[in-house]
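Practice problem 4.
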């Protein structure tokens, strides 16, 4: 290491993914784009995230031979929140709806997102101008003793809370006083109208709090133990950085954190201004577009796991396709296709490496059976999360959870009925249990294209899967190698379909998924048919992720353009985490409830003015102050603030009539670093 590098501040980037935790040590010295001094990976340990973090960071520090005290900033991206929403996981929370009816649950996917979690309806709320209806929290107060013992947090959404948050604040204060549990109020997350979708966003935020809290706590504990006295930042879903404390309160904003960081990293590594970026991880594939050096943002809100939120994030499409995706077989057809995802499994190769004989002996037993079993090659194991997160289990769930331990248990020994299989799936959705089974990562081990886990266990799993029968009663593959080749080819083909689907959707075309499937099918089919179809992207693909060199090797011919896989593609997220900026915003609305009265709703305050100019000036002062405060909380002391105003007016008999004004302040700056 040169003397210049030693004297320059060092930046540590961490990415906690579903399978791996990555770390990279980066210095601003060493060229116009700085220099990666060292990088490393360790398995993500969901039961104790500090273990995986320490494994990756310790390896980086050892490789670089640097003093931990020289690190002046730590920045982290994570796919944990994204993966949790894709897989339907998260803590059990209670939703409090003020001023809404039960019919509102049917809108914007709120009922599906709520699932079996409790909901409490209370009279109250406001109108579009912030005028209050009568609030009655007696029903909520009566329910709190029972709810406080069975949920991990609360989500509160009141009718038109973005115009007056008073009723949300009252409910929030009551819940905190009576239960001491985390409470998310909808006005804290979004200033947009649309109550049910705002409630959905708030519900998901509350569900993610314990997960992100454990991640931040684990990281802070590790840094303190290593003597790294540097600020900890977290990448938000739009690629901006925020402080760890900020992210703890608003974890929903970290959905697409990892993918957003990867876009920043992709641009940094390749220098490409225009590209389609496809990041394949263990659980998901995330596809987004770079235009003129910047990622496209989705102003309507990020869609993850089928839910459209109100979180402004990178315009990225997330698909349940990764190296650890569940491999299944199409049902009810003569020649079944291979199906992948969306659920992540613990690869058998990984389970075999960690648990050895406990896994391999069961696989060998199943292979000795004369006929294949429906649950062959599948195991259940506890995730190791704290016991308090298992609160609220039904009696069947509790009995099954008790039967599952820290060593994988074969499903054909565990389950005795289809009802129990449904019960197991609910435990998986709660994040309490992992399923282990055959995955593309296992297929790669069988073919010698991946070698970081136990290949022998992966081969046993492939043998079992190859014994599954098609609609004619024949084995679906002759050898473990044959089925593994099919799995990897399917993953590459599906990757191409998802990339093209994203491109079509960005172009505003309907039926994007159907067209993409047809085009890729024709490209790989030996008999393409009478109609010749072809398609080509107008820009190259940047392939990211540790497995991108493997899975994207045959991608270019399917998408009609080049595929660039950068040298440090395996740590793109961690690298992107350390080169971003803090960026936060604040909004105010000015309305006219009646002629001559101008109402300013900003933050948690509502004020009236008799003059339009005075109201607009007050709104601008408010949002500037709020944005400056949020910027400090988010981790920068040098924010530049820009204010923009948008007016809705009409003209009546030649006279201008004010309707509404929307005032937005955006504060941005580099994160503060340790002195």
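Answer key:
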């Amino acid at each position: 290491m040169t003397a210049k590098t030693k004297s320059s501040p060092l930046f540590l980037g961490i990415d906690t993914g579903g399978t791996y935790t990555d770390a990279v040590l980066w210095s601003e010295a060493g060229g116009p784009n700085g220099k990666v001094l060292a990088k490393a990976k360790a398995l993500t340990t969901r039961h104790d995230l500090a273990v995986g973090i320490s494994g990756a960071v310790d390896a980086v520090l050892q490789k670089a031979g640097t003093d931990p005290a020289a690190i002046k900033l730590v920045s982290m991206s994570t796919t944990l929140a994204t993966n949790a929403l894709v897989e339907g996981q998260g803590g059990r929370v209670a939703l409090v709806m003020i001023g809404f009816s039960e019919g509102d649950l049917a809108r914007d996917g709120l009922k599906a997102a709520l699932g079996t979690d409790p909901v409490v309806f209370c009279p109250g709320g406001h109108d579009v101008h912030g005028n209050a209806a009568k609030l009655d929290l007696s029903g909520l107060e009566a329910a709190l003793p029972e709810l406080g013992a069975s949920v991990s947090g609360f989500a509160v959404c009141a009718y038109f809370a973005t115009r007056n948050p008073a009723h949300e604040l009252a409910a929030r204060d009551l819940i905190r006083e009576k239960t001491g549990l985390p409470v998310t109020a909808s006005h804290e997350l979004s200033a947009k109208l649309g109550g049910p979708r705002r409630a959905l966003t708030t519900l998901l935020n509350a569900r993610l709090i314990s997960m992100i809290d454990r991640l931040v706590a684990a990281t802070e504990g590790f840094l303190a133990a290593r003597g790294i006295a540097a600020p900890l930042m977290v990448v938000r879903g739009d690629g901006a950085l925020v402080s760890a404390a900020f992210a703890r309160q608003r974890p929903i904003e970290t959905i697409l954190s990892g993918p957003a960081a990867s876009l920043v990293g992709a641009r940094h590594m390749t220098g490409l201004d225009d590209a389609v970026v496809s990041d394949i991880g263990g659980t998901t594939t995330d596809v987004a577009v770079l235009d003129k050096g910047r990622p496209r943002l989705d102003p309507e809100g990020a869609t993850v796991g089928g839910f459209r939120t109100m979180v402004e994030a990178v315009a990225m499409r997330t698909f349940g396709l990764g190296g650890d995706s569940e491999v299944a077989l199409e049902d009810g057809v003569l020649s079944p296709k291979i199906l992948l995802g969306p659920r992540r499994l613990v690869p058998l190769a990984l389970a075999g490496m960690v648990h050895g004989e406990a896994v391999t002996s069961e696989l060998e037993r199943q292979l000795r059976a004369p006929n294949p079993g429906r649950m062959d090659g599948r195991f259940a194991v506890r995730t190791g999360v704290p016991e308090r997160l298992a609160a609220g289990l039904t009696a069947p769930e509790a009995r099954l959870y008790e039967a599952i331990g820290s060593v994988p248990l074969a499903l054909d020994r565990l389950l005795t009925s289809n009802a129990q299989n449904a019960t197991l799936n609910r435990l998986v959705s709660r994040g309490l249990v992992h399923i282990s089974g055959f995955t593309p990562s296992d297929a790669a081990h069988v073919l010698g294209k991946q070698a970081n886990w136990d290949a022998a266990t992966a081969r046993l799993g492939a043998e079992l899967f190859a014994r599954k029968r098609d609609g004619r009663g024949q084995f679906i593959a002759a050898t473990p190698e044959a089925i593994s080749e099919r799995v990897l080819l399917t993953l590459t083909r599906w990757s191409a379909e998802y990339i093209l689907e994203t491109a079509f959707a960005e172009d505003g075309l309907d039926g994007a998924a159907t067209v993409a499937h047809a085009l890729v099918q024709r490209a790989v089919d030996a008999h393409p048919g009478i109609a010749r179809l072809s398609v080509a992207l107008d820009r190259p693909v940047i392939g990211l992720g540790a497995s991108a060199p493997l899975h994207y090797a045959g991608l270019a011919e399917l998408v009609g353009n080049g595929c660039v896989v950068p040298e440090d593609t395996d740590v793109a997220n961690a690298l992107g985490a350390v080169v971003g900026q803090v960026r936060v915003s604040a909004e105010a609305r000015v309305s006219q409830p009646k002629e001559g009265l101008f109402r300013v709703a900003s933050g948690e305050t509502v004020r009236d003015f008799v003059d339009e100019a005075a109201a607009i000036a007050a709104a601008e002062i408010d949002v500037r102050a709020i944005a400056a405060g949020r910027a400090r909380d988010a981790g920068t002391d040098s924010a530049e603030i820009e204010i923009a105003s948008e007016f809705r007016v009409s003209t009546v008999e030649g006279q201008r009539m004010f309707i509404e004004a929307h005032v937005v302040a955006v504060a941005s700056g580099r994160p503060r670093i340790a002195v």
